[in-house]
Design brief:
Blueprint lengths: L1 E4 L7 E7 L20 E3 L6 E4 L1 H4 L6 E3 L4 E5 L12 E3 L6 E4 L1 H4 L6 E3 L4 E5 L12 E3 L6 E4 L1 H4 L6 E3 L4 E5 L12 E3 L6 E4 L1 H4 L6 E3 L4 E5 L12 E3 L6 E4 L11 E3 L4 E5 L12 E3 L19 E3 L20 E3 L6 E4 L10 E3 L4 E5 L12 E3 L17 E3 L5 H11 L5
Parallel strand pairs: 2-3, 3-5, 4-6, 5-7, 7-9, 8-10, 9-11, 11-13, 12-14, 13-15, 15-17, 16-18, 17-19, 19-21, 20-22, 21-23, 23-24, 24-25, 25-27, 26-28, 27-29, 29-30
Antiparallel strand pairs: 1-2
Length: 415
């Protein structure tokens, strides 16, 4: 505890930094009312109940206040003409319910607000001409329902917004000529359905968008000449069907795309002269039967194709120059493992749970950087290939070939 002695009142300590977390406090200590230089206050993980008093938000010098992990149920409205110097307010894991009052979003200096893990059901619209300094707003794991209001996406300074783990069903279209400073938007585990609107992919500053764990069925094509700043797009565990649209691979800044856990059956033929910035693509747990060789313009580092309906090794893989991780497990691939698959920069390869029978002889003078291969639950037979003698093979092993691998690693056989 750092403090200054207040010479004008020898019986009173003026504290700058006070941590009273994880005690058994049941109320706000009354001596806090008279703190004039208190900058940091942590009362988290106590047993404080009831209403958050307005005086604590208006302490003259208070910059950071942590009241998380209590049983607080409401916020007392500020007194007229009161001011607040708060920059960070953490109220997560309390018992707040009802409406998020608009005045809290408009506290003059408030930069970070965490209201996650409560029972808040709605957001009060801001007053006309009000402003907000908020950069980060976390409302995950509440009871928000209905529509995501457009005004929240347009808060002037808001950079990060987490609305995940609620029951939100739709997104209100932005107002004409409105702008957004959002860089990160998390809407995973809600009840969004229908089409992903094209405007959300084109928010000027949006870098990361998580729409996973919803019931979204399709993607609206972008408007002509629209641009996207998205680097990461997560749509896993939705209800996407049919074709993966070709335009998604050509989003100029998109580096990571997760479409796993849907019902996608194919990839639309790529646009002429396509280029892509993608380095990570996850298509696991879909219904893909193949990927055309014309997708060789994708130069990936990480590719997940597990749990689809592939019957052969996708031909576009032959032209991958940077691939370090490849998972094609749990498909229906039969026959021989081609030798070209060992010649990538692959470090980890999973071919388990297929119907593979043999390995093609290695390419002449090939070098390998693989460190981990999973071949379990196939139908491999024959002799262990000595060119793989530095690789760790994973199990469980359910065929004679795999047992030979284990024996080789334990006691190498001299050819």
């Amino acid at each position: 505890m750092l403090f200054d002695y207040n010479g004008s009142n020898s019986s009173f300590l003026q504290i700058r930094h006070l941590v009273l977390a994880s005690n058994k406090l049941r109320a706000f200590p009354d001596f806090l009312r008279n703190q004039s230089i208190l900058y940091y206050l942590d009362l988290s993980n106590n047993q404080i109940q009831g209403k958050i008093p307005n005086w604590i938000l208006s302490l003259k010098s208070l910059n950071s206040l942590d009241l998380s992990g209590n049983s607080l149920a409401s916020l007392e409205a500020p007194l007229p003409n009161s001011t607040s110097t708060l920059s960070s307010l953490d109220l997560h894991s309390n018992k707040l319910q009802g409406e998020v009052p608009n005045w809290i979003l408009s506290l003059k200096s408030l930069n970070s607000l965490d209201l996650s893990g409560n029972s808040l059901a709605s957001l009060e619209a801001p007053l006309p001409n009000s402003t907000s300094a908020l950069s980060s707003l976390d409302l995950h794991s509440n009871k928000l329902q209905g529509e995501v209001p457009n005004w929240i996406l347009s808060l002037k300074s808001l950079n990060s917004l987490d609305l995940s783990g609620n029951s939100l069903a739709s997104l209100e279209a932005p107002l004409p000529n409105s702008t957004s400073a959002l860089s990160s938007l998390d809407l995973h585990s809600n009840k969004l359905q229908g089409e992903v609107p094209n405007w959300i992919l084109s928010l000027k500053s949006l870098n990361s968008l998580d729409l996973s764990g919803n019931s979204l069925a399709s993607l609206e094509a972008p408007l002509p000449n629209s641009t996207s700043a998205l680097s990461s797009l997560d749509l896993h565990s939705n209800k996407l069907q049919g074709e993966v649209p070709n335009w998604i691979f050509s989003l100029k800044s998109l580096n990571s795309l997760d479409l796993s856990g849907n019902s996608l059956a194919s990839l639309e033929a790529p646009l002429p002269n396509s280029t892509s910035a993608l380095s990570s693509l996850d298509l696991r747990s879909n219904k893909l039967q193949g990927i055309h060789s014309s997708y060789s313009f994708l130069q990936l580092g990480h590719l997940g194709l597990a749990s689809n309906k592939l019957t052969t090794f996708p031909n576009f893989l032959r032209n991958q120059s940077y691939l370090t991780y490849l998972d094609i497990s749990d498909n229906q691939i039969q026959g021989q493992i081609p030798n070209w698959i060992w010649s990538f920069k692959l470090q980890e390869l999973n071919l388990s749970c297929n119907s593979l029978e043999s390995l093609e002889a290695p390419l002449h003078n090939s070098t390998y950087v693989l460190s981990k291969v999973d071949l379990h639950s196939n139908q491999l037979q024959g002799h262990f290939p000595f060119f793989l003698n530095t690789i760790t093979f994973t199990g469980p092993f359910q065929n004679p070939y795999a047992m030979q691998v284990v024996l080789f690693l334990i006691c190498p056989i001299i050819p």
